[in-house]
User: Which sequence fits this backbone?
């Protein structure tokens, strides 16, 4: 991030481009996920903890997991631990750069019901690094966008 910019309006995300380090998208604090599925609701005002370990190592679709305390903790940690927010395509869809744990250096997409590492194409799950993501994001291309 330091070599590209500490925030820029360039790129397609709806909420102000690439966020400055430590900033949250405007929708983060008021987001109410339809598929949150946690006994404890999402609190976008909670202080994020990038120094804590990011809890996931592979895609997780929590809409298929049980509505219980164990999954609730994992869900909250997925959104609050081990990453910095990069930007948002729309409310409820957030890009993060993982900064701790085995996924360090990879970009993840957090959205209603699922969290997944970024890949240039659906079959290319190994190439989710920040540089590849920011290049695709800057020109508005990627598998997540409708053609």
Assistant:
């Amino acid at each position: 991030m330091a070599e590209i910019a500490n925030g820029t309006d360039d790129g397609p995300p709806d909420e102000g481009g690439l966020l400055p380090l430590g900033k949250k998208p405007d929708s983060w604090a008021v987001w109410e996920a339809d598929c949150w599925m946690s006994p404890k609701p999402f609190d976008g005002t909670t202080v994020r903890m990038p120094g804590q370990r990011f809890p996931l190592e592979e895609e997780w679709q929590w809409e298929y997991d049980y509505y219980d305390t164990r999954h609730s903790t994992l869900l909250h940690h997925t959104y609050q631990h081990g990453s910095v927010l990069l930007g948002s395509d729309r409310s409820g869809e957030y890009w993060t750069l993982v900064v701790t744990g085995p996924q360090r250096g990879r970009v993840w997409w957090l959205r209603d019901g699922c969290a997944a590492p970024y890949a240039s194409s659906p079959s290319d799950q190994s190439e989710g690094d920040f540089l590849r993501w920011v290049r695709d994001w800057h020109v508005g291309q990627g598998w997540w966008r409708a053609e």
